[in-house]
Amino acid sequence: MIKYLLWDIDATLLNFKKAEYFAMRDGFEKFQLPIDESHIKNYNLINDKYWKRLERGEITREMVLHGRFREFFDGLNIAYTDELIYDFNKFYQVELGNNIFFNDNAKETLKTLEKTYKQYA
């Protein structure tokens, strides 16, 4: 008999792409940087590339967190310092956690299942 459920959060329960969009938008607003929709889509491609390199053991997590923004800002011809990259990444990480969007029916599913199962993420 199943007693426990282990959930993958990203793309299963939560809409990470939507959270990512708002975190990027808010970051560009906070740091007074120019951005449009195509920029965010381009960031998604760069970000995915960096995480795949990490999975293959080619780079470290630290290289992902800062390298993705260096490459992204370079592509937009935005002048930056290491401090801006660090501060932008830090803000972005916090905003990812502040922007929570459940996928369709995910919250209701969790509520229904909590009556029968212990759930972990």
Textual characterization of the structure:
This protein is mostly helical and 121 residues long. It is 61% helix and 5% strand. Strands 1-2 form a two-stranded parallel sheet. It starts with a strand and ends with a strand. The model has no long low-confidence stretch (mean pLDDT 93).
Short description:
The protein is mainly α and 121 residues long. 61% of the residues lie in helices and 5% in strands.
Contiguous runs where pLDDT drops below 50 for at least 5 residues: none
Helical residue percent?
55-70%
The ordered H/E elements are EHHHHHE
- Overall pLDDT level: 93
Give the topology, please.
Blueprint: E1 4-6, H1 16-30, H2 37-55, H3 61-75, H4 82-98, H5 106-113, E2 118-120
Parallel strand pairs: 1-2
Entry keywords:
121 residues, mainly alpha, 5 helices, 5% strand
